[in-house]
Each structure stands twice: as C-alpha cells, then as structure tokens.
Amino acid sequence: MAKLELQNVKKNYGATEVIPGIDLTIEPGEFLVLVGPSGSGKSTLLRMIAGLEETTGGNIVVDGDDITRTDPSARDLAMVFQTYALYPHMTVEQNMSFALRMRKEDPAAIAQRVEEAIVLLDLAGLEKRKPGQLSGGQRQRVAMGRCIVRNPKLFLFDEPLSNLDAKLRAQTRLEIRKLHDRLGATSIFVTHDQVEAMTMADRIALLKDGTLQQLGTPQDLYLNPANTFVAGFMGTPE
Ligand code: ADP
Ligand code: MG
C-alpha cells in the first residue's frame, strides 16, 4: 500500500493556469474519489501523477520518494482510462501480459499472474478473444487485468465507467471497490458523477477550476458542505 503526497502541485498550459497549486495526501489503502465538473483539472492531475504530463511546480511523493521527475515507466502505478486503451490486435491474454513481457519477466510467472487475474476478474473462457469480440464491461475488466498483473502500489482511474450503461456501471463500481479492498491497493478514482463518488469513496476530493473545494468523507461533504458549490454538487438539501 502506498502513501501519496501532492505538495503544491501546479499546472499551466502556456499562460493558462489550470491548477494553481494542490496539497493533498492520500493514505495507504485509501480509495479517494476525485470529483468535479468537466474541465476542473481532474485528468490533468492524474496525468501528472502518472508522469504523462509534466508538472509546472510542486512535488509528487510516493512513500517518501519524490517521483516528480521520474520517468513514467519507472513509476510503480497503473492507470485505467475511459477508453481502456487495449491493443486491438492482441488477445485478452496478450493484452494482460504485455507489460510483463516487455519487462522480460519469467514466462511461467507471467502465465500464472495472468491466470490469477483472469479468475479474479471473471474472464475465464475469453482468453483468446480480441477486444473487438468483447462487451464494454468485459473490455473494462481486461483493462483492469492489465493493471493488476503488474501489482502496482497505486491505481489511477480516469472515468473508467463512462462508456458503460447505467446498470453495468453500478455493478462495475462495486467490483472495482471490492478489487481495491482485496488487493490492498491505494486508489484515486476520477469521476464527474456524484453518485459514483458517494458510493465508492473513503474520502472525496472535490475540484473546481483546479482548486480543491473540500476534502472529506462522503458524509462530511454531504452534511457539512464547505460552500454553496459543494452543497450544489453533492445535492445537499437547503
Ligand atoms: P477534467 O478532466 O476535470 O475534465 P482536464 O484536466 O481535462 O479536466 O482539463 C482541465 C483544463 O485544462 C481544461 O480547461 C482544459 O481545457 C485544459 N487542458 C487540458 N489539457 C490541455 C492541453 N493539452 N493544452 C491546453 N489546455 C489543456
Ligand atoms: Mg477528464
């Protein structure tokens, strides 16, 4: 389990200040939901943690190590995207084992890790299929599997359920949360969906215009909103 500290993390695109400076600590084993309207900077923040986007200022620290300038491939984390980003020409098995094969890990060990993930994610029987022959929910689980086999310290989810229909979304929410608990992972889950935040989070961090509006448990934000924006977002009755 990893502890993640964001210390005054900033992002500018040219002259545009997208994130003026965020301080946030995510505790080991925590499931933090990062929520906020479209354009509030959620993806930018995740991408900086993953190293896919450079920071303009501040530090990103995992278990005491400053990884702000660490190459993305050397960061011990995994990111699940809205579009899943699966390789279309590879089978389920090949998609899931790809990163491990690149790292030249022992083939027998790879096969075992993939097999475990397939069972855990209820994908047995689909090993030889390609992404085009899977449902949206199954593709989503393959994307999860690709992360799990690497056994990362930290999971980053960028709206991974947006492409699923409402029923599957509700079910997959629970599956992801269970998986997090079972793996003893630390996770940041981005969504713009208030219900998703309420049902999944240990704590919610609510962003608006790149600024943290409130950090707390779902109950905190709902019952004691820090401002009218938080109240409006959480649906707190007046
Ligand atoms: P969210 O994920 O919360 O919808 P984003 O992090 O994608 O928000 O975007 C935050 C802000 O940064 C938006 O105003 C967006 O237009 C801007 N932005 C994102 N990526 C870029 C980029 N590559 N160049 C310029 N502006 C960007
Ligand atoms: Mg986004």
Outline:
With 238 residues, the protein is an alpha/beta fold. The chain is built from eight helices and ten strands.
Topology record:
Blueprint: E1 4-13, E2 16-26, E3 31-35, H1 42-50, E4 57-62, E5 65-66, E6 77-80, H2 92-102, H3 107-120, H4 136-148, E7 154-158, H5 166-183, E8 186-191, H6 194-200, E9 203-208, E10 211-216, H7 218-223, H8 228-234
Parallel strand pairs: 3-8, 3-9, 6-7, 7-8
Antiparallel strand pairs: 1-2, 1-4, 4-5, 9-10
Helix pairs in contact: 2-3, 2-4
The structure holds adenosine-5'-diphosphate (ADP) and magnesium ion (MG).
Magnesium ion binds next to helix 1.
* Gap from first CA to last CA: 39 Å
Q: Structural class of the secondary elements? A: alpha/beta
Bound molecules: adenosine-5'-diphosphate, magnesium ion
User: How helical, in percent, are the residues?
Assistant: 25-40%
Give the amount of beta strand, in percent.
Answer: 25-35%
Give the helix tally.
8
Biggest sheet statistics: 6 strands, mixed
Order of strands, main sheet, comes to 6-7-8-3-9-10
As residue ranges, the low-confidence spans are: none
The protein's oligomeric status is single chain
Describe the global form: globular
What number is the mean pLDDT?
Answer: 94
Care to count the β-strands? 10
Radius of gyration from the alpha-carbon trace, in angstroms: 18 Å
Tell me the series of helices and strands, N- to C-terminal: EEEHEEEHHHEHEHEEHH
Main location: membrane
Membrane topology: Peripheral membrane protein
GO molecular function: ABC-type transporter activity; ATP binding; ATP hydrolysis activity
Subcellular location: Cell inner membrane
